[in-house]
Write a structure and sequence with these properties.
Blueprint lengths: L4 H4 L13 H24 L4 E4 L2 E10 L16 E2 L3 H4 L8 E13 L26 E9 L6 E9 L6 E3 L4 E5 L6 E5 L1 H7 L6 E4 H8 L20 H4 L1 E12 L2 E13 L6 E7 L6 E22 L1 H12 L2 H14 L4 H8 L3 E4 L2 E4 L2 H13 L1
Parallel strand pairs: 3-5, 8-12, 11-14
Antiparallel strand pairs: 1-14, 2-6, 4-5, 4-14, 6-7, 6-10, 8-9, 11-12, 13-14, 15-16
Subcellular location: Endomembrane system
InterPro entries: P2X_receptor (IPR059116)
GO biological process, one term: calcium ion transmembrane transport
Length: 379
């Protein structure tokens, strides 16, 4: 059989055929409706009309304040006694960016300075004045819990800005939500009204430490899972310390492109403990006081998606979404040409083949004549 070069260099073009078949028409309209709903959902609900970007993290500042009244909690009646500190003594360091550490257990020892020594001016590790913790010390504070730490209040201030947009805002101008660790259940709503209710001069969001512990699913009196914890003695998170990561997520308010909201998403980092050692040089006698602190470390991370209305972004989303309508046509054509009993008839109606001979175009009507003959025989 000779090879037909015309089929190799043939050109295919579209042919419009109106198929008056109720089955196909209903299926086609249903698919169109589903795709249209999806387009509206994407553009409106997912805010495809915005020119978005990730926020540039600003400053995060956390301050602590002691409650007006403190009761003696039950854990102070155990083997480890309690001591009661002010907010400045509990938070270490007192001002930090992006994280906050609050002491829950502490031990303090004072190491006397050898006569005639200055531990800051030692010339070598073998110098007798080189400071090394030794048994020659005075216990200023035996191992103790910080009493009532859960009732202390902390104020969180944070801000963000845009890089490609002109957005620059602090949390005092936005509404927020504190979620539980599942990221879905609301623990507390934050508005300007709620901020001023807690403190008329508040610049940030005020929570008790217990609020963030509960929201993150942490319990200071639960057995610690940290590798370094004394599990045989039943050491708790109050003793070993704990790390809680808090993600602050920012986004635009739907239908209000000039307003932003944020959410706190706290979660315990399982298996982590946290401690820090504070060294204090006493200038009067040259002695050194070492405070061994264990406690709660809150680590903050800012992310999300913020944006402003942009017509080009809206147009791009519309064009990309409308292209999905072709999917409805493709599905219906597959059903028409592959699954319906009349698929052969529809295929012959949809596709015609032309031949160019000696300056004339001929249309292959063989299939058409075949069906005409079949209809005549049936009649």
């Amino acid at each position: 059989m000779a090879f037909d070069w015309r089929s190799l260099f043939g050109y295919q073009t579209f042919k419009m055929v109106r198929v008056k078949d109720l089955r196909l028409g209903v299926i086609f309209r249903i698919f169109q409706l589903i795709i249209l709903i999806y387009i509206l959902f994407e553009i409106i609900y997912n805010q495809r009309y915005l020119k978005t970007e990730a926020p540039v993290p600003g400053a995060i500042r956390v301050t602590l304040q002691a409650p007006n009244d403190l009761d003696i909690p039950s854990y102070c009646n155990g083997a480890t006694p309690c001591t009661f500190w002010g907010a400045n003594e509990i938070q270490y360091p007192s001002d930090s960016a992006g994280y906050a550490f609050f002491t829950t257990r502490a031990t303090a020892r004072n190491y006397p300075n050898p006569p005639g020594c200055n531990s800051l001016r030692t010339t070598s590790p073998s110098d007798p004045c080189f400071f090394k913790p030794s048994n020659n010390n005075v216990t200023i504070l035996p191992t103790s819990y910080i009493g009532g730490i859960e009732n202390y209040t902390m104020m969180i201030e944070h801000s963000i800005r845009g890089e490609a947009t002109s957005i620059a805002i602090r949390n005092g101008l936005m509404d927020g939500t504190l979620f539980y660790s599942d990221g879905k259940t609301v623990y507390k709503k934050i508005t300007n009204a709620s901020r001023t209710q807690d403190n008329p001069r508040a610049d940030g969001d005020i929570f008790t430490i217990q609020d963030l512990l509960t929201a993150s699913g942490a319990n200071l009196d639960a057995p610690s899972t940290a590798p370094g914890a004394d599990k045989a003695a039943g050491e708790t998170y109050r003793s070993s310390g704990i790390v809680i990561a808090i993600v602050i997520n920012y986004q635009n308010v739907r239908f209000k492109t000039d307003q932003l909201v944020y959410s706190y998403l706290p979660r315990v980092i399982d298996g982590n403990e946290y401690k820090v050692t504070e060294n204090i040089l006493n200038s009067t006698d040259g002695s050194i006081t070492i405070i061994d602190r264990h406690g709660i470390r809150f680590v903050f991370q800012q992310n999300g998606s913020i944006g402003v209305f942009d017509f080009v972004s809206l147009l791009t989303s519309l064009v990309a979404s409308i292209a999905l309508l072709k999917v409805a046509e493709l599905i219906v054509e597959i059903i028409m040409l592959r699954f319906l009993p009349e698929k052969e008839v529809y295929e012959d109606v949809k596709f015609d083949e032309t031949t160019y001979r000696r300056g004339e175009v001929e249309v292959n009507k063989a299939d058409e004549k075949k069906y005409q003959k079949r209809d005549e025989e049936q009649n």
